[in-house]
Amino acid sequence: MGWLPAAIKIVPIIWQAVITVERLIKDRKGKDKQDEAVRMTGELLALIEGVVGRDLLNDANVQAAVRNAIDAIVALQNTIRNIKGVKPS
After folding, report:
1. 48 Cβ partners below 8 Å, 6+ apart?
2. For residues 42 and 57, is the Cβ–Cβ distance under 8 A?
3. Residues 15, 77: Cα–Cα separation, whole Å
4. Among 1, 56, 60, 83, which is least packed by CB within 10 angstroms?
C-alpha cells in the first residue's frame, strides 16, 4: 500500500502538466505535446522526490506510467469535449 500516497501526489501533478501544455502549446500535437508534459511533470515531480525518498525522475517504469497517465487524461478530456459537442484541440 506504500504506492498509494505517492500516486495521490503524482496524479494531480500529471493532470496539471497536461492542462498547462494544452493551454500554452497550440502549435504542436501528439508526442511533441506528450514530451512537453513529461518534461513538465519531471520538473514538478522533483519537488516530491524527497517525500517518497526515491529517485523517481530516472526510473523508466515511472516515465512509462507518466506517459500512460497523460494519454488517459487526454483521452478523458477529448471524450468529455465530444460529449459536450466541442471539438478536441
Report:
1. 6, 9, 10, 13, 56
2. yes
3. 11
4. 1
Number of domains comprising the chain: 1
Q: Is residue 24 a part of any domain in this protein?
A: yes
Domain hosting residue 46, numbered range: 3-84
Neighbours of 70 (CB within 10 A): 22
Q: Across residues 26-50, what is the average pLDDT?
A: 86
The pLDDT value recorded for residue 73 is 92
Check residue 3 and give its pLDDT: 65
pTM comes to: 0.74
Q: What does the alpha-carbon distance between residue 74 and residue 44 come to, in Å, rounded to a whole number?
A: 19
